[in-house]
Amino acid sequence: MTYPLAITWGPGEILLVLLVLLLLFGGKKLPGLARSLGSSVTEFKKGIRGETAEGDEEKKKLDPPPPEAP
Q1: Stretch 5-19: mean pLDDT, rounded?
Q2: Interatomic CA distance for residues 62 and 70, integer angstroms
């Protein structure tokens, strides 16, 4: 089944998008932009699962530490 408005991303299109991003943001700001995008995706996924920083702290308080091996 083919979709008439489907977008397929080949190597040329990906290279073009990366080039435009490099021109818009410059080489020095691009790593920071990628880092913030990654952390945003991570926070979004945590939000979807219902995890929060407060929930993580509560979970640590409720879970006993693992027993130490002799």
Answers
A1: 85
A2: 24
Contacts of 22 (CB under 8 A, 6+ apart): 30
Backbone dihedral region for residue 16 (phi beyond 0: left; psi -120 to 50: alpha; all else: beta): alpha
At CA 21, angle to CA 11 and CA 13, rounded to 5?
A: 20
With tokens 């979807």, the residue in question is: 48
pLDDT tens digits, 20-55:
988 888 888 888 888 998 999 999 998 888 866 555
Residue 55: CA count within 13 A, CB half-sphere: 6
Q: Which helix (H) or strand (E) holds 31?
A: helix 11-49
